[in-house]
Amino acid sequence: MTTSPQGFTDIASTVTxxxxxxxxxxxxxKGLKNLYSELMRKAKPTKVAIRTLExxxxxxxxxxAASARMAHFIRSLGLTPGSRVAARxxxxxxxxxxxxxxxxxxxxxxxxxxxxxxxxxxxxxxDAKPGLVVCDPSALGWIAPLAKSSGCHQVETLGSAxxxxxxxxxxxxxxDFPTLACGPDALAAxxxxxGTTGRSKGAMLTHANLASNALVLHHxxxxxxxxxxxxxxxxxxxxxxxxxxxxALWAGAQMVWMSKFDASAVVQECxxxxxxxxxxxxxxxxxxxxxxxxxxVKTMRLFISGSAxxxxxxxxxxxxxxxxxxxxxxxxxxTIMLTSNPYQGTRRAGTxxxxxxxxxxxxxxxxxxxIKLKPGQESAIGGVQVRGPNVFAGYWNMPEKTKEExxxxxxxxxxxxxxxxxxxxxxxxxxxxxxxxSGGYNVYPKEIELLLDDQxxxxxxxxxxxxxxxxxxxVAAVIVPDPPEIASRMGPLDEAKILSRxxxxxxxxxxxxxxxxxxxxxxxxxxxxxxxxxxxxxASTFSAD
Length: 545
Hints:
By secondary structure, this protein is of the alpha/beta class. Helices cover 32% and strands 23% of the residues. The chain has 17 helices and 25 strands. A nine-stranded mixed β-sheet has the order 2-1-10-9-11-12-13-14-15. Strand 18 (406-407) and strand 19 (411-420) form a beta hairpin.
């Protein structure tokens, strides 16, 4: 474990004291009873909580009243605390109200990616056994039978245009609901992982997990009631639903609600907003838009990027255009946020900063032995493990998998590989499942990707391991060329030339045996490169060698 920068050290005592009070569990303590109450503690009823680009405004009172009516309706269905409410719905303020209603009534919210189709939903419904499924009106015809086949006969609709049966049926109920005192260990949500390496796993997050992380980020990122957050993320994911929304609500701040990202609209809103949370794709598009200037973002105090690695060149280009450095952080469904570059201090491209206050983080070798750190020296590469109040309660219906993913002492194995720089910044070098073992040597894709991305004709790259009859696995790289206007100045792509340069930079066992060129890399909804798709596409490359 490394020490945190001064900015985190300064708030550690404050966070510790507040966390101790928040997480008290004895009946006499004023500890956490329900996440909803904490999120709305600083809310001023008349203040605008959400403003949409279409001109609609929702006050904090509106959020409270609408979520109360929905909570009453949900309870009227006979659902008891702990029942799951699955939601495959488009982004809307009303979708947020449904989430708040679930918190208030003690239900377990199950947000589902709007891109999920029938077989994926069939698995989720059969596994989670929701008591209520909410879907977009346009999808009712095919989702309702799936829900009913899993035993859920209560299916309602909620549209993005203030429509749907859920709103109609909740309308007659009272806008005053006594929020359930369910306690810190009660489940608040289940988030299913992407399932790229097998069955999707449902990460169980408690009220305490979410509340503790919101509190820590509130201090670490200096949230204020006066903040205005540009919210252009989806809300079926940790980033948009928990990190962004919880940050604004905890501070009693305002959100500018966008159904999807639009570079010109974001730049326009930057003239009166203060915070933007985005995935790397947002920042690439903002840089390429030609609209960014320091003057246009002068009210902004914080740009945050996460959910996928941000290219160093994008980080640098953004800083040159705006005078502001993007803050990169690191989190996952099972832990919410783990680390962050400092709010005050150097935000270093290619790193994810330091462990957040209350979060313990370490690196371990192949034998699960903690890697010893020497002051002023970079560490060896190791598996990233973490523990703290933010770490999830386990995987739904998978006790053996849960046990397998925790090391002795309560350390959660993130599956990521990392390295501490000499001054303590954490650098992620890839997923452990992406580690390539070629001829008995360990090859970390990130090291090669950084070198490839620095090549003049390369925009970005992804390094993968492919089955090889002699080496077990062979290193291969998928390259996205620079845009045509840049590529025209660089000349045609030359695989031999690129490999010749790399040969002078890295050991021979790390050198890609093949380069593939694609117009873009496959990514999921949050911008993460889907290396499993690339491995499948090029799986037979060396089969005839």
